[in-house]
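sorry for the late reply, my laptop died twice this morning and i had to redo everyting from scratch. anyway the thing you sent over, i finally got around to it. pasting the sequence first so we're on the same page, its 181 residues, then the predicted structure underneath. double check i copied it right bc i was rushing
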Amino acid sequence: MSKSFFLLVPPSLLMASLLSLPVMADPMKTDWGRVSMEGSIIDTACAIDPGSLEQTIDMAILPIGQLVQNGVGNDHPFEIRLNDCTIAHADSSKSNRQHFTVTFDGTADGSNYAVYGEAEGIAMQIIDDKGNASIPGVASPEINIIPADMKLNYALRLVGNGKMLRAGTYHSSVRFTLDYY
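ok and here's the structure:
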Protein backbone atom coordinates (compact mmCIF):
# COMPACT_ATOMS: atom_id res chain seq x y z
CA MET A 1 0.00 0.00 0.00
CA SER A 2 1.31 3.32 -0.90
CA LYS A 3 0.73 6.33 1.24
CA SER A 4 0.59 9.89 0.08
CA PHE A 5 0.34 12.99 2.08
CA PHE A 6 -0.05 16.64 1.36
CA LEU A 7 1.30 19.46 3.34
CA LEU A 8 -0.87 22.47 3.36
CA VAL A 9 1.17 25.64 3.40
CA PRO A 10 -0.46 29.02 3.46
CA PRO A 11 0.26 30.89 0.20
CA SER A 12 1.99 33.79 1.99
CA LEU A 13 4.50 31.43 3.64
CA LEU A 14 5.11 29.66 0.35
CA MET A 15 5.84 32.97 -1.42
CA ALA A 16 8.14 34.15 1.35
CA SER A 17 10.16 30.96 1.23
CA LEU A 18 10.47 31.06 -2.56
CA LEU A 19 11.57 34.70 -2.62
CA SER A 20 14.29 34.06 -0.07
CA LEU A 21 15.89 31.21 -2.04
CA PRO A 22 18.43 33.38 -3.92
CA VAL A 23 19.59 34.91 -0.66
CA MET A 24 19.85 31.55 1.00
CA ALA A 25 21.63 30.05 -2.00
CA ASP A 26 24.69 32.30 -1.59
CA PRO A 27 24.72 33.83 1.89
CA MET A 28 28.41 34.94 1.60
CA LYS A 29 27.97 36.97 -1.56
CA THR A 30 28.50 40.58 -0.59
CA ASP A 31 29.92 42.00 -3.80
CA TRP A 32 29.91 45.74 -3.71
CA GLY A 33 32.58 48.32 -4.17
CA ARG A 34 33.50 51.90 -4.09
CA VAL A 35 35.76 53.96 -6.27
CA SER A 36 37.25 57.06 -4.75
CA MET A 37 39.00 59.57 -6.90
CA GLU A 38 40.86 62.74 -6.25
CA GLY A 39 42.60 65.17 -8.54
CA SER A 40 42.87 68.73 -9.65
CA ILE A 41 42.89 70.69 -12.83
CA ILE A 42 45.55 73.34 -12.81
CA ASP A 43 46.52 76.05 -15.21
CA THR A 44 50.21 75.45 -15.59
CA ALA A 45 52.61 75.68 -18.51
CA CYS A 46 54.17 72.24 -17.94
CA ALA A 47 53.39 69.03 -16.11
CA ILE A 48 56.10 67.62 -13.85
CA ASP A 49 56.91 64.08 -14.92
CA PRO A 50 55.81 61.60 -12.21
CA GLY A 51 59.34 60.18 -12.07
CA SER A 52 60.67 63.61 -11.16
CA LEU A 53 58.30 64.33 -8.29
CA GLU A 54 60.09 62.32 -5.61
CA GLN A 55 63.69 61.33 -6.15
CA THR A 56 66.30 59.73 -3.94
CA ILE A 57 69.91 60.41 -4.85
CA ASP A 58 72.62 58.15 -3.45
CA MET A 59 75.55 60.40 -2.60
CA ALA A 60 77.93 57.43 -2.25
CA ILE A 61 80.96 57.43 0.05
CA LEU A 62 83.13 60.54 0.25
CA PRO A 63 86.54 60.42 1.94
CA ILE A 64 87.05 63.37 4.29
CA GLY A 65 90.44 63.95 2.65
CA GLN A 66 88.77 64.69 -0.68
CA LEU A 67 86.50 67.27 0.93
CA VAL A 68 89.47 68.87 2.72
CA GLN A 69 91.60 68.91 -0.45
CA ASN A 70 88.96 70.00 -2.99
CA GLY A 71 86.48 71.86 -0.79
CA VAL A 72 83.62 70.01 -2.52
CA GLY A 73 82.54 66.43 -3.08
CA ASN A 74 81.70 64.74 -6.37
CA ASP A 75 78.72 65.91 -8.42
CA HIS A 76 75.69 63.60 -8.32
CA PRO A 77 73.44 64.47 -11.26
CA PHE A 78 69.66 64.46 -11.19
CA GLU A 79 67.03 65.86 -13.50
CA ILE A 80 63.56 67.30 -13.42
CA ARG A 81 61.54 66.34 -16.48
CA LEU A 82 58.70 68.56 -17.61
CA ASN A 83 56.03 67.24 -19.98
CA ASP A 84 53.54 68.81 -22.35
CA CYS A 85 54.88 72.34 -22.00
CA THR A 86 52.91 75.09 -23.68
CA ILE A 87 53.19 78.84 -23.58
CA ALA A 88 49.48 79.40 -24.22
CA HIS A 89 47.49 80.48 -21.19
CA ALA A 90 44.10 78.81 -20.58
CA ASP A 91 42.58 82.26 -20.00
CA SER A 92 42.83 84.04 -23.37
CA SER A 93 42.61 87.43 -21.64
CA LYS A 94 46.03 86.78 -20.04
CA SER A 95 49.31 86.98 -21.90
CA ASN A 96 51.19 83.83 -22.82
CA ARG A 97 53.77 82.50 -20.40
CA GLN A 98 57.33 82.72 -21.62
CA HIS A 99 59.47 81.87 -18.60
CA PHE A 100 59.58 80.03 -15.33
CA THR A 101 61.83 79.81 -12.32
CA VAL A 102 62.74 76.90 -10.08
CA THR A 103 62.98 77.39 -6.34
CA PHE A 104 64.55 74.73 -4.16
CA ASP A 105 63.51 74.92 -0.55
CA GLY A 106 64.96 73.19 2.48
CA THR A 107 66.63 73.98 5.76
CA ALA A 108 69.40 76.47 5.05
CA ASP A 109 72.98 76.09 6.18
CA GLY A 110 74.36 79.43 5.06
CA SER A 111 73.71 79.60 1.31
CA ASN A 112 73.51 75.80 1.06
CA TYR A 113 71.18 73.10 2.38
CA ALA A 114 71.56 71.55 5.83
CA VAL A 115 72.22 67.85 6.28
CA TYR A 116 71.35 65.79 9.34
CA GLY A 117 72.94 62.74 10.88
CA GLU A 118 76.26 61.74 12.38
CA ALA A 119 78.41 63.57 9.80
CA GLU A 120 79.32 67.15 10.66
CA GLY A 121 81.01 70.04 8.93
CA ILE A 122 79.17 69.53 5.64
CA ALA A 123 76.24 71.01 3.75
CA MET A 124 74.63 70.13 0.44
CA GLN A 125 74.83 72.33 -2.63
CA ILE A 126 72.58 72.19 -5.71
CA ILE A 127 73.95 73.49 -9.00
CA ASP A 128 72.31 73.72 -12.42
CA ASP A 129 73.91 72.77 -15.74
CA LYS A 130 75.20 76.34 -16.14
CA GLY A 131 77.03 76.24 -12.80
CA ASN A 132 74.52 78.44 -10.93
CA ALA A 133 74.31 77.44 -7.27
CA SER A 134 70.82 77.29 -5.80
CA ILE A 135 70.20 79.21 -2.57
CA PRO A 136 67.44 77.88 -0.30
CA GLY A 137 64.17 79.71 -0.96
CA VAL A 138 65.60 81.89 -3.75
CA ALA A 139 64.27 81.52 -7.30
CA SER A 140 66.63 80.50 -10.09
CA PRO A 141 67.40 82.76 -13.04
CA GLU A 142 64.60 82.78 -15.64
CA ILE A 143 64.30 79.68 -17.81
CA ASN A 144 62.58 79.96 -21.20
CA ILE A 145 59.64 77.65 -21.75
CA ILE A 146 60.23 75.37 -24.72
CA PRO A 147 56.98 73.85 -26.02
CA ALA A 148 56.82 70.03 -25.74
CA ASP A 149 59.01 68.25 -23.18
CA MET A 150 61.91 69.75 -21.25
CA LYS A 151 64.66 68.35 -19.06
CA LEU A 152 66.28 70.43 -16.32
CA ASN A 153 69.69 69.13 -15.28
CA TYR A 154 71.07 69.61 -11.78
CA ALA A 155 73.70 68.11 -9.54
CA LEU A 156 74.04 67.68 -5.79
CA ARG A 157 77.39 67.85 -4.07
CA LEU A 158 78.69 68.13 -0.55
CA VAL A 159 80.56 71.24 0.51
CA GLY A 160 82.21 72.20 3.76
CA ASN A 161 80.22 74.53 5.99
CA GLY A 162 83.18 75.89 7.98
CA LYS A 163 82.72 73.62 10.99
CA MET A 164 84.94 70.75 12.10
CA LEU A 165 84.58 67.74 9.80
CA ARG A 166 83.34 64.50 11.32
CA ALA A 167 82.75 61.25 9.44
CA GLY A 168 79.34 59.59 9.54
CA THR A 169 76.07 59.12 7.72
CA TYR A 170 73.85 62.02 6.72
CA HIS A 171 70.58 62.79 4.98
CA SER A 172 68.66 65.80 3.76
CA SER A 173 65.36 66.66 2.12
CA VAL A 174 64.74 69.44 -0.38
CA ARG A 175 61.53 70.43 -2.20
CA PHE A 176 61.21 72.35 -5.44
CA THR A 177 58.54 74.57 -6.95
CA LEU A 178 58.11 75.96 -10.43
CA ASP A 179 56.68 79.45 -10.95
CA TYR A 180 55.51 80.40 -14.44
CA TYR A 181 55.08 83.91 -15.82
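The domain at 47-180 is CATH 2.60.40.1090 (Immunoglobulin-like).
thats about all i looked at so far, will dig more tmrw
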